[in-house]
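Lab meeting, action items carried over

1. Structure of the two-component assembly. Owner: GW. Status: complete.
Input record:
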Amino acid sequence: MMKLLRRIFPHPHLTVLLTLVWLLLANKPSLNSLVFGLLLGIVIPFITQPYWPDRPKLRNWPMIVEYMLVVLWDIVLANIAVARIILFKRDAARQPTFISIPLELRTPEAITVLAGTITMTPGTVSCDLSAQGHKLLVHCLDAPNPDEVRDEIKHRYERRLKEIFE
Amino acid sequence: MTSILELLIAFFLIISGIFGFVGSFGMIKLKDPMSRLHAPTKATTLGVGGVLLASIAHSILLEGKLSLHELLITLFLFLTAPITALFIAKWHIHRHEKPSDLPDAGEDELWATHAVEQVEDVPDHSTN
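Predicted assembly:
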């Protein structure tokens, strides 16, 4: 029974997400759009299943909420910090640099989220992954102290993602 | 009462205008291509976010109906902005950075962009 359910709903989270997105697209709640959204939510994960065989396990739901709030707050701070660098710092005084971050995360989904988060937050853009996925290459807009940036990313984001995904 | 609400909405619009401007200005001011990448990925998120907040506030407070379309735009923006940035960064590494210029990749020896075989038939623009 469980096996059959898993075959029909390969990614239950994706099903819920797609239904929600469809409801938001319709922009007013009605039974009509709920049914059609559910239909899409069932069909799309089912036909894309071959391309996404693994099932990411989400373990810690309160942590997901915490992570989203932390990231949203950091995005606001990131905007202000970057705006300040652009407006008030002389271009020659900036110290742009590449740093590498050793990864403890192994799940592809977790690394994707981490890379995305790094791009959206203060002064850092994730640029590349090492050949076997053990390190992340990050570009800093202004990093007088690269080690500090690395430690903060590891402590602030990677630790939380590890609790969510692994 | 309405004027206070309008002030709030105007506040969000101004915030978004400022950050949108700073993001575009950064494209001119920052000199190296990798640093330029920072301006559009970040400063504009709050730029667009401000307009969306203003739009939600307007539909709820003034028109009296709930409209959450805007949340979707935020969601799509958060999904696409890092990917675009990653593509541009990878292009830059592919064309302009040698493995020796980048930090050590550790046990994996090379960064993923350099690990794929270099295609030779792409015209070389790195000199100009």
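2. GW to write a short summary for the group page. Key points so far: DSSP finds five helices and no strands in chain B. Chain B has a mean pLDDT of 79.
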